[in-house]
Amino acid sequence: MENCKIFYVSPTGNDSFDGSKNAPFLTIEKAYHEIEKTNDSVVINLLPGVYPLTETLVFDTKNTSKDKTITFKGENATIFGGEYVKDWEKHNDKIYK
Hints:
This protein is mostly beta strands. The protein contains 1 helix and 5 strands; from the N terminus they run βαββββ. Strands 1-2-4 form a 3-stranded parallel β-sheet, with helices on one face. It has a two-stranded parallel sheet with strand order 3-5. β1, α1 (28-35) and β2 form a beta-alpha-beta unit. It is elongated.
């Protein structure tokens, strides 16, 4: 890809890092916000792990175009749009709270 910016995201990264392979971001949201700062196409490499989204990500003409594409790559990466719920207690046979 010509004129392509590449970012890395890892569950052990840090959003104050630069998103390089050796200093990956922690969150997809951070990579998403970096997309808006470039006119180049972007590849976001998700390293193995789980990525909970804390905000809705919208891909539209504000951050993509015919000449600016966004590609996600990842192996053994799971993205989910929710929060972990811990410490469930059984309320009755069919309900946990």
